[in-house]
Amino acid sequence: MELLEEITSYVDEELKDQNICCRMKKLITDDCVIRKEYMIQKCMKDLLRKRFACSKFPIGLDEKIFLYISHNINN
Which residues make Cβ contacts (< 8 Å) with residue 6, sequence separation at least 6? Predict the structure, then answer.
């Protein structure tokens, strides 16, 4: 797994392997570049969660999504 993907997975709490989790914690603590990327991703995820997770989607969006998926499956 690429390091950027590992950071993203760590932020999303998707990593199941404790060795990788421990390595990521150490990298975040020790490496300022990794720490910066982690903080950017974490802040973005927190912002999206706070701003949009509780919002209702616009009327008709579900139909537009269904039509888009149907169109792409049929082509």
Answer: 15, 20, 24
